[in-house]
Amino acid sequence: MRLFDLTSRVAIVTGGNGGIGLGMARGLLEAGARVVIAGRDRAKAEAALADLAGEHAFLEADVTSEAACRQLVAGAVARFGRLDILVNNAGSSIRKAPEAYTEAEWHAVLDANLTSTFLCCKAAYPVMKQGGGGKIINIGSMMSIFGAPYAAAYAASKGGVVQLTKSLATAWAGDGIQVNAVLPGWIDTDLTRRAREQVEGLHQHVLSRTPAGRWGMPEDMAGIAVFLASSGADFVTGAAIPVDGGFSSRA
């Protein structure tokens, strides 16, 4: 459908060289967008990009640095001439009891998940405003809704992503920029595979709690990315949308 056609649009996907980010990047490419994948691991990115269709590029960036975020946006514009879509997917987690966190570990998770989202949005804003508008998709989490004893820093950061999303949506609506958050459930990625190793019983808990009866896959994130990046979502802003197989709807 033309409503969801992203031909001629340019996207940046941070952390797009694997997992949820790669699943979203594939969806955007299939819808016709040109995609810049940003990350710190060039070798991993080259492996991921090898089988991607469509017009794409990789730019190395540490998105916890404001200067690097500005350079990323400038690099995307230099490569493809514009910027229409930003997916803030880069992030990390340190799983341990809250009282066991060091201050450095706390800041590392907050910076990777929340500060990076703010800095990338801030860098993209003037380019999108000058171009007449844009779409920003921030990746929250089920931990934006629920708590977990091993995820204090992660949950705090992802809850912050949702509230940042709402604030930016209200601030930038007049500039034609829609800002929304996606809250993935338990998706089968490298990050959650490590979680299954560290959290006893997690795999069975996810299967029993999820009405869909399975873990999500990165490709399950493609459709929501295309929708929120398209003109079909021009009147959707400030939303936080679970994509979780019904996990958050179950009592």
What is the CA-CA span between the terminal residues? 36 Å
CATH-defined architecture: 3-Layer(aba) Sandwich
What would the CATH topology be?
Answer: Rossmann fold
Oligomeric state of this protein:
single chain
Biggest sheet features: 7 strands, parallel
List the total number of helices.
8
Helix content: 40-55%
Overall number of structural domains: 1
Beta content comes to 15-25%
Cα-atom radius of gyration: 17 Å
Indicate the mean pLDDT: 95
Q: Give start-end ranges of low-pLDDT stretches.
A: none
What is the approximate shape?
globular
Instruction: Give me the strand/helix succession.
Output: EHEHEHEHEHEHHHE
CATH C-level class: Alpha Beta
Assign the CATH superfamily.
NAD(P)-binding Rossmann-like Domain
Classification by helices and strands: alpha/beta
Strand order of the largest sheet: 3-2-1-4-5-6-7
Which descriptors apply to this entry?
seven-stranded parallel β-sheet; alpha/beta; 251 residues; single chain; Rossmann fold
Overall description:
The protein is of the alpha/beta class. The protein has a single domain (2-189, 218-243), classed as Rossmann fold (3-Layer(aba) Sandwich). Helix content is 43%, strand content 15%. It has eight helices and seven strands. The protein has helices at 19-30, 42-49, 66-80, 103-130, 152-172, 190-198, 202-209, 222-229, and strands spanning 10-14, 34-39, 56-60, 85-88, 134-139, 177-184, 240-243. It has a seven-stranded parallel β-sheet, sandwiched between helices. Helix 3 (66-80) packs parallel to helix 4 and helix 4 packs parallel to helix 5 (152-172). It is globular. The termini are far apart.
